[in-house]
From TrEMBL:
CDD domains: AHBA_syn. The active site is at 184 (proton acceptor). One of its GO terms (molecular function) is transaminase activity. The gene is pseC. This is UDP-4-amino-4, 6-dideoxy-N-acetyl-beta-L-altrosamine transaminase. It comes from Candidatus Mucispirillum faecigallinarum.
Length: 379
């Protein structure tokens, strides 16, 4: 049996052919592939605008900047996420208010958001952890009530659906952010995107992606025929055409990738449904979880660790998502405290992310399930 990991990319010959084609084209960056990939992202999500950037982290930074986040502001998010969600706010010198999670669905507890809101709150960033959409209607109502923006960290949630709306449509947000890292649903090696329906946000994202510069097409161009103006302090967060060619080829297969992930999740749900040592993420009738992760909780920390090591001995490499962001030394030094969000810490001590990716075969999947059942029986 090959080494089984918690997640990995699916690359086939047609992806390779597209990348080679892009490499042989006139422009390997700022050419035709990036706009074509953006168009495909718009069509897939239904969002009016898509801006492809160099990573999911860059997408978060770009979205926050485009919404005007600055040092006078705060964002609200939960600690059960990859550090980039809040790091991108720190880049802009904003503060972070960490809200605890709901231990049944592993998502930000929408009932605890309102108490964190004050006059400096600018953005709420819900994370659709593992691929399960947050309670967006509730969060949207709060944002409307207090005039706050919403950026969905949808890095886990390509292809997930909430009340009939596909994630990335931005029906309940000002912007949504994807990552195309190899463990995510589709990959460009490194890459990300901002989706939005707001033209002003879109234009700002374009500026932040590329040094804040724009070409100005005046009739009487001052000084030089290639006149550029820098409007704001932007970055170089551009995606290359080589990456976009891979993305364009991958997005054609996104539905089959998501379908296989859900199939695998269904088999796990069925296999462990009567096992009281394993708690699985809550299911909702009004949502489709696209399962970037298959995340489970064990009864306690020592049981989780025993399962982790036993699986590792059997060539199955699981992961733990996530150490609460407010537990990282960097955040602790800034005065953030993981004890303020006890459920996120408890979650971290009991969580394990089991293998889920399109190329995982049923044989491998049942091998994983069998090993988990074996170790639990022995304990
Ligand atoms: C992957 C991920 C990111 C960052 O994406 P990169 O492309 O690795 O920069 C941000 N937030 C979450 C929740 C993620 O899973």
């Amino acid at each position: 049996m090959d080494k089984i990991t918690y997640g990995r990319q699916t690359i086939s010959q047609d992806d390779i052919d597209e990348v080679v084609k892009a490499l042989k084209s006139a422009s390997i960056t700022q050419g035709e592939y990036v706009p074509a990939f953006e168009k495909a992202l718009q069509e897939y999500t239904g969002a009016k605008y898509a801006v492809a950037v160099s990573s999911g982290t860059a997408a978060l930074h770009t979205a926050y900047a485009a919404l005007g986040l600055n040092k006078n502001h705060e964002i609200i998010t939960c600690p059960n996420t990859f550090a980039a969600t809040s790091n991108a706010a720190l880049y802009l010198n904003a503060k972070v208010k960490f809200t605890d999670i709901n231990i049944e669905n592993f998502l930000i507890d929408e009932e605890k958001i309102e108490e964190k809101i004050n006059e400096n709150t600018k953005i709420i960033t819900p994370i659709h952890y593992a691929g399960l959409p947050c309670s967006m209607e509730k969060i949207y109502d709060l944002a409307q009530k207090y005039n706050i923006k919403i950026v969905e960290d949808a890095c886990h949630a390509v292809g997930s659906v909430y009340k009939g709306s596909i994630t990335g449509s931005c029906k309940y947000s000002d912007a949504a952010v994807f990552s195309f890292h190899p463990v995510k649903h589709i990959t460009t090696a490194e890459g990300g995107a901002v989706l939005t329906n707001n033209e002003e946000v879109y234009k700002k994202c374009l500026l932040y992606r590329s040094h804040g510069m724009e070409k100005v097409n005046f009739k009487n161009i001052p000084d030089s025929p290639t006149y550029h103006e820098m409007q704001l302090l932007g970055y170089n967060y551009r995606m290359t055409d080589i990456q976009a060619a891979l993305g364009l080829s991958q997005i054609k297969k996104v539905e089959s990738f998501v379908k296989r992930r859900i199939e695998i999740a269904d088999i796990y749900y069925d296999a462990f449904k009567d096992n009281n040592k394993i708690i699985m993420q809550k299911k909702y009738n009004d949502r489709i979880n696209s399962h970037h992760l298959f995340s489970v909780l064990f009864e306690n920390n020592s049981l989780r660790d025993k399962v982790y090591y036993y699986l590792k001995e059997n060539n199955i490499f699981t992961q733990i998502h996530y150490m609460p962001v407010n537990k990282h030394p960097y955040y602790q030094a800034l005065g953030y405290d993981y004890k303020d969000t006890p459920l996120s810490y408890e979650f971290y001590r009991r969580e394990l992310s089991l293998p889920v990716y399109p190329l995982l075969t049923n044989e491998e999947l049942y091998y994983v399930i069998d090993k988990i059942n074996t170790v639990l029986k022995a304990l």
